[in-house]
Amino acid sequence: MAKMQEPRHHRSFSITRLIRYGWVALSLLLVACHVDMYDQPRYEPYEYSAFFADGRSSRPPIPNTVAVGQFQDDPHFLTGMIDDQFATTLPFPLTADVMERGRQQYNAFCMSCHGLVGDGDGLIAQRGPLVVTSFHSERLRNVEVGYIFDVITNGLGRMYSHAARIPPEDRWAITAYVRALQLSQDATLDDLSPEERERLVGTESEEQ
Amino acid sequence: MAQIFKPNANAIIRVSIITGILLIIGIILTMVAIYRSTYYTEVGVAKAQSVPFSHKHHVSELKIDCRYCHATVERAAFAGIPTTDTCMSCHSQIWLNSPLLETVRESYRTGEPVQWSRIYDLPDFVYFNHSIHVNKGVGCNVCHGQVDQMQLVSQAQPLYMGWCLDCHRNPEQYVRPREEVFNMEWAPPENQLEMGRRLVQEYEIKVENLSDCYICHR
After folding, report:
1. Is A146 a domain residue?
2. Is the pLDDT of residue B108 over 80?
3. Which of A46, A143, B73, B202 could lock A147 by a disulfide, CB 3.0 to 4.6 Å apart?
4. Residue B3 falls within a domain, yes or no?
5. B153-156: long-range contacts at Cβ-Cβ below 8 A with a sequence spacing of 24 or more?
6. What is the CATH number of the domain that holds A133?
7. Which of B14, B67, B86, B110 to mutate to test the interface with A (most CBs of A within 10 A)?
8. Is B92–A107 a contact, with Cβ atoms under 8 angstroms apart?
9. ipTM
């Protein structure tokens, strides 16, 4: 059988080559990046913004304004004050749930400095040089609950404000728990019911 | 008329079919490899931060609760990143002169926020909410790993959809009592499934529609 050698036809060869290998480029196009839906033109909380001069997308509130729905007209609840006097009561009834919430929040926000029972010997205080006040002094046992709320809200001396991190209802729950700590650390045997005294004295004598 | 196919056409066709198939397989394998590699998932890859903040130091040695710094994690979708004020509540007294904290002090002086590099970042077409998970007994370390042992935070797993669904279909494998959510040492007990089923009922977790698309893509 005769084999005929044709001279190469350059144009058609490059077209077949294009068709033969074009799919590689085509499939690359198909897997092309689709980052537009991954990173949509909106800000996530605290995301950097090139638009504002200070780079913050979360805008700080404008001074002397109140956000819609944020206005609350209850100075007792928000400041711990009634007619410029520290309140002596909680703004809502004290229940076991409130006390339990107070315990959890105290352990999260106060314990590292003030210690488990409020002696002022939390891990941070133990390492120093921060010296932390104990709750168990005559003066602090007799302050109004509104005062404790005010210390959490506005800070005092070397202690910073916690208002930005703890909402008011939780600050009140913590206040109640601090009061409970003060009572428990200042309790005498006479405060216990006869059965409780029995249990306590019983274990003590067992230990001896 | 000239022959269209030259004698070596068969060989060329064979070779190009085989290379074609190999190429496709190759591309697929490479894409799978990239998709699984730490380059794409960033699992275990720590990022440089402007302040060398150590969770190991603050959480496992100083026993500071997650909420002290990630204060909105129980209440909001966003866990919250601590403000300069939060760091300064201690560091205005502690390690006053440490050069490691210069960025924090400068931010406090000027009011310019400290910039942190994000570690966990879902695509914007996925909705996620911390508060519901935390309040229904899903612990931080189920999703974030042992943050308390990390000097710099890195991702513990890649945030694939399959991973979210694995739990949303059978949450009883993971849920724990609410008060243990922040406990980084908590490990599933032997009767996890039994306890999990009880907690799923108690916390009224609606398993039936938890894997519907609209839950996460809304």
Report:
1. yes
2. yes
3. A143
4. no
5. B153/B46, B153/B55, B153/B119, B154/B42, B154/B43, B154/B44, B154/B45, B154/B46, B154/B47, B154/B119, B155/B41, B155/B42, B155/B43, B155/B44, B155/B45, B155/B119, B155/B120, B156/B43, B156/B44
6. 1.10.760.10
7. B67
8. no
9. 0.80
Residues of chain B with Cβ-Cβ distance to A108 below 8 Å are 65-68, 182
* Nearest residue in A to B26, CA atom: A24
Q: Is residue B49 part of a domain?
A: no
Return the residue of B nearest to A5 by Cα: B6
Domain that holds residue A135: 97-186
Mean pLDDT of the region B206-210: 89
Nearest CA distance, B134 vs chain A (angstrom): 14
* pTM of this structure: 0.87
Domain that holds residue B37: 10-41
Count contacts between A and B (CB, < 8 Å).
78
Token pair recorded at residue B104 = 């924090």
Give the per-residue pLDDT at A13: 61
